[in-house]
Every structure is written in structure tokens, then in C-alpha cells.
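Field notebook, page 446. I keep forgetting to write these up properly, so this time I am using the form the group agreed on. The chain and the ligand, protoporphyrin IX containing FE, are recorded exactly as supplied. Prediction of the bound pose follows.
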Amino acid sequence: MRSDEDGLQAVDELVRTYRHSCAWFLGPFYNMVRLFHPDYVKPLLLAPGQSLLLTNGTKWSRQRRLLTPAFHFDILKNYIYIFNKSTNIMHENWRRLLAEGKKDFNMFEYVSMMTLDSLLKCTFSYDSHCQECSGKSDEYISAIFELSDLAVKRQRYLPHHWDWVYHRSAEGRRFRRACEIVHSFTAAIVQDRRSKIDQQGPPESFTQTAKRGYRRTVDFIDVLLLSRDENGEGLSNEEIKAQADTFMFAGHDTTASAISWVLYNLAMHQEFQDRCRSEINDLLSGRDSEEITWDDLSSLTFTTMCIKESLRLHSPISAVTRYYSQDMSVPGERIIPAGSICLISIYGTHRNPDVWPNPEVYDPMRFDPDKSKQRSSYAFIPFSAGPRNCIGQSFAMAEIRVVVALTLRRFRVLPGSKPVKRFYMIVMRTEGGLPLMLEPLMPAQE
Ligand code: HEM
């Protein structure tokens, strides 16, 4: 199956034909089951399965327990200020470019730099200024982008699936070099922070003032360094480094894809955009500052419905894969034999006509709380579900809401000059960018 527009339409056809799942046989030994119905997806996601990409069961569950405090609401609250700041920088850039006469804005380009900016501040308290200089001067930022690029290229070129071949190729060498840069950057921060905590004790408060002009919050590294399991054991430097690197890769492109597609869907549906804007303007009316706070997020009811509908229609991650070492039962007394690769299709489940009538239509009213109650909780799974779901889900939802709210408050978003063709490159993107037009709004238009 290809991951371009034609490939995605072929998946739509598959879902319309089979409705819950289908099996693929690749030669005599390798088989894969593709599942796209909530009732079939549920037993698989609830099983303590082993992800193909990540650490094994025992190691994973200990690490997951130690990571969980880093995503507690009390910690996430402190990041809202950072999300506001990073969005403001992006908007200042947009205003400058509009004044210079720019028309089409490739959303991915600006939004992914902005989500990277935020994530670096939340993970390491590192202010890279990447939005000011497009990250070009920063070795670490270039390495992050290069790694995502190389991962996509490798995925698409079959001979490079073999490590032996890949690591001897020019691209494989560039990959290793970029990994070294990313790993040594993280290792240096972790080491430095550990020795500060050893010497000075844990950071005093969540909102100390920092040198670089934004409030220094407790970041992910601090929380991970202080996290302890039931035996009082913490994470090693090596484990913290690996987790921080995972956050950077799991967190910035996914959130950027989500935000870009929300803006796209609202550009295509001005009536919903207007309704979001009045909700946001009502919320902020009479305030001195435009800062969105943690408590504001729960008031953005309709905007959140629009975000969820966008995550359904343009889910950043197309599927999660699982390998089960024992037979798995699914409805209809069917068994998926041990050793099969299961591809739990988020894309397919979100577009299953048995679950979502007219699945290709963007309709935020599907997420009206009353309607949501009538659906299986496995019908909407952009962050996967079960024990191995996305640990960054609340972080991502908070960031998306802040960025979308501030953007609609300040700009009207309009369709760009050319139609888009979807394309999964690890996350859902498009072939050749996602152009949108922006019209700055004056405060008087509130
Ligand atoms: C809209 C944004 C995001 C989407 C759609 C998303 C989606 C997902 C999905 C589908 C998985 C399951 C992968 C699997 O089971 O194979 C996952 C796992 C994960 N995500 Fe996210 N994610 C997002 C944002 C984030 C952010 C912001 C972070 C961190 C700051 C993050 C960190 C992680 C981690 C660490 C895992 C692995 C969890 C585990 O195995 O226990 N994600 N994400």
C-alpha cells in the first residue's frame, strides 16, 4: 500500500469492502492483519502488546510508570505560557511576511518550527531561537530535521531496510552523524542538570525567572531526574536521554501535522471558523492580555470539537503496529494466529462508514458530547488507546488548542492557491506543502 493520495484512497476502498479487517500474505512466512473497526481494534489495543518500535515489555512498563508524572496536569499547566510565547513568535513572523507581500504560507513549515521551539523549551528549557532564524544556524535543529527526512527516505527505499546495507550507504552515514549530534546534545543537558540537582537540590518553584526572558519552568528533564519507582530507584542518565529523544521525535511533527490540518479544515469551512472565532473572542473579551491560560482550555468547547474532527479526518499517525506472541481473539469467534503482524489502522477506523456516516465529510458536530456518548470509545483513536497509548496526549491537545485559538483570534485562514494531495511521511502531510492564505484581523473586528 502506498502512502500517497492514491494509496489512501485504496485504503478507503478496502474499508468500504471489508468493514472490519483483512489479511495480507507476503510470501509463505509473513502475514499481516489490517484492522479498522472499533470492536476489532479494542481487544488488540487492550492487550499488553509489544510495540515493534519500542522497548520490550518489562523495561517499558517500568519506564512508563516513571514517565507518567512528567505528564501530570500540574506539570503541563506550566507549559501553557510557553505555547503562548511560541505562537506569538510565529504570528510576528507571519505579520512581517504579509507586510512583505507574501500570499501562500506553507503551514507545515512554520508550524513545525513552532512546535519544535515549544518542545525544546518544555523538554530542556532550551531556547533555540529556531523560529527567528529558521533553525539554520543550529546544529541540533538541523540534525532533528535531517533525521526525520532520512527516516522517510529509508522507509521508501527497500534495500535500505537492511541495516547492513543502510549503514554502508551515504545516507546511512549521514543518519549516524545526525544521531550522534542529537544524542550528545541530550546527554550533555542531562549530565549538567543531574550535577546541578546533586549540588543545589531540586528546582525551587515552578515559575522561577530565567535569564533569557521567559519564565523557567520545571521541564521534562527535571521531572524525569526526580522520578522514583516504588523501590526508590530512578531513571539512569541513559534512560532519561532516550526518553527525551523520544519526546522530541514523537511530539513535534505529530503536533505540527495536527495543527496544520485543523487550520486547513477551518480554512475550507469558514462557517465553523467563524463559530470558533466568536467562542475565542467571547472568552478573551475585556481582558488586558491575549494569553490563553490552562483554565481557558475547558471553555473552548466548539473549537475542541473542530480539533477532534480534524484529528479524525486527518489523523497525524495512520496506524500502530503490534506483534502478538499468542493467538488473539476478535469478534465472530475469529482468531488472529500468534506471530501475525497486526496493523491497527487509525486512518481506516476513522473512515469506517459503519462507524462514521459520510466519513469523508468534515463535520465537527460529530463530537457533540451527546453524540460521542453513543460511539465506542475505540472509534476515535488518534492517540491510540489502552496501556500503550500516547503519553503526550494532554500535552498535545493543550498545545493545539492554544495555537488554534490565538491564530483564529488574530488571522482569518483561507484556502491556498492550489489543491492539496495527502501524503503520509511518518505523519500525515501533503505532497509539496500545505499552502494557506492569511488575512490579519484588527482587534476592532472582534
Ligand atoms: C497530535 C499529536 C500526537 C499524536 C497524534 C500522537 C500519537 C501517538 C500514537 C498513535 C502513539 C502510539 C504508538 C504505538 O503504539 O505504536 C503515541 C505514542 C507515544 N507518544 Fe504521541 N502523539 C502526539 C503527541 C505526542 C507528544 C507531544 C509527545 C511528548 C511530548 C508524545 C509522546 C509519545 C510517546 C513517548 C509515546 C510512546 C508511549 C509508550 O509506548 O508508552 N506524543 N503517540
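OBSERVATIONS:
- DSSP finds 16 helices and 14 strands in the chain.
- The CA atoms of residues 146 and 299 lie 39 Å apart.
FOLLOW-UP: compare against the apo run.
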